[in-house]
Specification:
2 domains, about 20% strand, Acetyl-CoA hydrolase, 9-stranded mixed beta sheet, acetyl-CoA hydrolase activity, AcetylCoA_hyd_C_sf, 26 strands, Glutaconate Coenzyme A-transferase, 17 helices, binds ligand 0RQ, NagB/RpiA_transferase-like, about 30% helix, 5-stranded mixed beta sheet, alpha/beta
């Protein structure tokens, strides 16, 4: 598609010229939620600048804030250049993860829905610059974003200055897929005027004072989204178990006949879950109200299994994105991209009755969930939107394979080594072994349910012995033995006895 944009009254800059505006110690809000819509050329040039400054013996590090994870040109390049002093709210990049776990980058984990308001409230200090990818920008300051919204509108409002990557890879026809709305702030916070997943409540572009726009860097770069692995037998079985559980809830009349909107995490399990729901004979066509619209959603939409998708990013592999761009008007009627403050908003999640489905790293026998840390110490990715949805869901579900690392790890443990979601928020646990329905159960009953239905047979007897060997108070837990599984793994490389 040809790109009609003329630079009008904004200077055109090279990535290097844009990066020259960045000073050591600045805080920058970059567009991007997953690699979708992430700034690409300017962060790379900032990384090059950091290397030059470091070679000249000068300090050069910046605070990096984004919607969520990004692509390698942003987090990877900047981390490898040792250019990130602090980072929030989420990441999933190997080089950055290493920098965080080695203490070279300060990272604090946040619920994604609160990031924009925390910036407006001043909790994260001054934002010097916003760097956002756009497919169009008008002389009066209307910025049309690309494949994600994330926190870009807030970065643009709150930062002193704005640099735009005008990415000609994306058609200007994307205008209309976004719904940009910022809530009122306390003390007078009005209700967000949404009552269905498909309501549109805002504008189609981000409106800024054009004098804040320093200039434009023209690019033509695809999003750095990886293709999905084919699901294996375990993820397919987890998907089947989720669909079986939801169909039974529907049959029991606990989920309304017309069904409820689904929030589903990212990755292979989420793909398998959506696929299984789509092909289950009892589950009617449904809506998605989630963060990320990923590949599987597009196929299910074309088949009519998903009727509408509300998210904050269109995280599609290159072939699937081309499929969407070839039929953009069809998909613009069925997909809306909102700021993460709205896509993940607790008020809306509770109002719409979202069914949340997220993946855990480990779960304890009482239903506390660790989504973020390995063996209590090292950060994996971050809590992302899982807390926004779980705590406020109509039904909250956590999935994971019952074992990891070829069986050396039981993902069900006596006590989680880090806690992101407490027992109060976690209603259903599903592994490939089966379904544990924790609703209305006390801690011992929850533990019995999880051990009977979700634990891998290799670890079932030991967990059962643990539960029944403890002199119980309300929660049967042994402070001496609660981390025996973890300690054994760290000492011997396996949790097996
Ligand atoms: O490591 O690749 O080295 O083998 O941890 O596991 O299988 O790649 O899992 O991609 O589904 O990610 C929770 C991280 C799962 C993700 C998490 C090892 C395992 C592997 C990762 P290897 P997989 P997934 C928002 C949704 C938080 C944010 C969120 C996540 C690696 O889902 O980041 O929910 N969630 N966002 O071998 C030690 C254990 C382990 C373990 C697995 N118990 N101990 N290592 N691993 N279990 C909502 C949206 O709407 C998007």
């Amino acid at each position: 598609m040809t790109h009609p944009f003329k630079p009008r009254n904004f200077p055109e800059l090279s990535p290097g010229e844009a990066a020259a505006y960045v000073q050591n110690g600045m805080t920058i809000g970059f567009s991007g939620f997953t690699p979708a819509g992430a700034a690409k050329a300017i962060p790379k040039a900032i990384a090059a600048r950091a290397r030059e400054e470091h070679a000249a013996g000068r300090e050069f590090k910046i605070g990096v804030v984004t919607g969520a994870s990004t692509g390698d040109s942003l987090d990877g390049e900047l981390a490898r250049a040792d250019a990130i002093s602090w980072r929030t709210p989420y990441q999933s990049n190997g080089a950055l993860r290493k920098s965080i776990n080695e203490g070279r980058t300060h990272f604090f984990d946040m619920h994604l829905s609160v990031l924009p308001q925390n910036i407006r409230y001043g909790f994260l200090g001054k934002f010097h610059l916003a760097v956002v990818e756009a497919c169009d920008v008008t002389a009066d300051g209307q910025i049309v974003l690309t494949t994600s919204v994330g926190a870009a509108p807030t970065f643009c409002q709150e930062a002193d200055k704005i640099l735009i990557e005008l990415n000609e890879f994306h058609p200007v026809g994307l205008r209309g897929i976004h719904d940009i709305y910022e809530p009122y702030d306390p003390p007078i916070r009005l209700p967000i005027p949404m009552t269905t997943a498909h309501d549109r409540i805002g504008s189609r572009s981000v409106r800024v004072d054009p004098s804040k726009i320093i200039g434009i860097v023209r690019t033509n770069l695809p999003d750095e989204v990886a293709e999905f692995k084919e699901p294996d037998a375990t993820t397919l079985q987890i998907g089947e178990n989720v669909a079986t559980f939801l169909a039974a809830e529907l049959r029991a009349g606990r989920i309304p006949k017309q069904f409820l909107p689904i929030q589903s995490g990212v990755g292979n399990i989420a793909n398998a879950v959506l696929g299984a729901m789509g092909s289950h004979p009892e589950i009617p066509p449904f809506q998605l109200f989630s963060e990320v619209v990923q590949d599987s959603v597009i196929g299910l939409m074309e088949k009519g299994d998903i009727t509408f998708a509300s998210g904050t990013s269109l995280t599609l592999s290159p072939p699937v994105l081309s499929q969407v761009y070839a039929n953009l008007d069809y998909f613009k009627d069925r997909i809306v991209l909102r700021p993460q403050e709205i896509s993940n908003n607790p008020e809306i999640v509770r109002r719409l009755g979202i069914i949340s489905i997220n993946t855990a790293i480990e779960i304890d026998i009482f239903g506390n969930v660790n989504s973020t840390h390995l063996m209590g110490n090292d950060l994996m990715n971050g809590i992302g939107g899982s807390g926004d949805f779980t705590r406020n869901a109509f039904i909250s579900i956590f999935t994971c394979p019952s074992i990891a690392k070829g069986g050396d790890i039981s993902t069900i443990v006596p006590l989680v080594s880090h806690m992101d979601h407490s027992e109060h928020s976690v209603q259903v646990v599903i592994t490939e072994q089966g379904i544990a329905d924790l609703r209305g159960k006390d801690p011992t009953e929850r533990a019995e349910e999880i051990i009977a239905h979700c634990v891998h047979p290799d670890y079932r007897d030991e967990l059962d012995a643990y539960l029944h060997g403890v002199i119980a108070g309300h929660t049967p837990q042994s402070l001496q033995m609660a981390f025996e599984f973890h300690q054994r793994f760290l000492a011997t490389g396996t949790m097996r006895r």
